[in-house]
Amino acid sequence: MCHKCQEVAVLSRRTSRRLITASVTAAVLALGGCTGSDEETKSASGTGPSVIAPGKPGEAAETLSAEDAAKQRTDDDSPNSADIDYARMMIDHHTQALEMTELASKRAESTRVKRLAERIAAAQGPEIDSMEGWLKTNGGKEKSGGHGHEAMPGMATEAQLKKLSAAEGKAFDELFLKLMITHHTGAITMATDVLAQGNNIQIGEMADDVIAQQTSEINRMREMS
User: Fold this and answer.
1) Residue 72 pairs with which residues in a beta bridge?
2) What single string gives the DSSP state of each residue in 42-97?
3) Residue 1 parent element (H or E)
4) Which tens digits make up the pLDDT trace of 50-94?
5) What pTM was estimated for this model as a whole?
6) Which CATH code, of 3.90.1150.10, 2.40.128.110, 1.20.1260.10, 1.10.10.10, is assigned to 81-224?
7) Residue of 119, 93, 100, 81 whose CA lies nearest to 190
């Protein structure tokens, strides 16, 4: 397949998936007992459930129909605020995972845990580099450094990290797996959110990779627990 055809195919798949995600999300909200008026639940074009599309950095969000949102993404995949926030926060999220995996080489007892930690570090280090590069290209700061743990699902608290740093042997293995499963689950939540709310194809592809890889690792860790 030629390079141009590949680009068209990727764009088509991305738009289709996001249209489905947006439509399902809107339908769930509608069925969940929303109490707004009929006018509020209709799209800007009056043809169905509305989709809240985050604006570009510095711009307000807008309400679109699922159809209009999909068309907009097809026409322009410029990063919006959801894309920028995802990259900034995921850098911090991955950085904490690297801090946790670094402890495993000296404190873990299980060879499987050590190897798992090595795989996680080998994957997430380059992902941090990719997101930092993407932020440079798209006008965002390389690293946020300002997002609190509460803003990112799955992040370990300072107390939990301190406990992990003090643990050794089997106690370390058990706590590491517990914290990392939670950490990975949080990353998947963030990736799923940006697939529904973001607009940039490259960020969407990064989020797809996070979901696929970390889902596989969660399954492996549960078997080890």
Assistant:
1) none
2) B-TTSSSBEEEEPPSTTS--EEEEHHHHHHHHHH-----HHHHHHHHHHHHHHHHH
3) none
4) 666 666 556 677 776 766 766 655 568 899 999 999 999 999 999
5) 0.67
6) 1.20.1260.10
7) 93
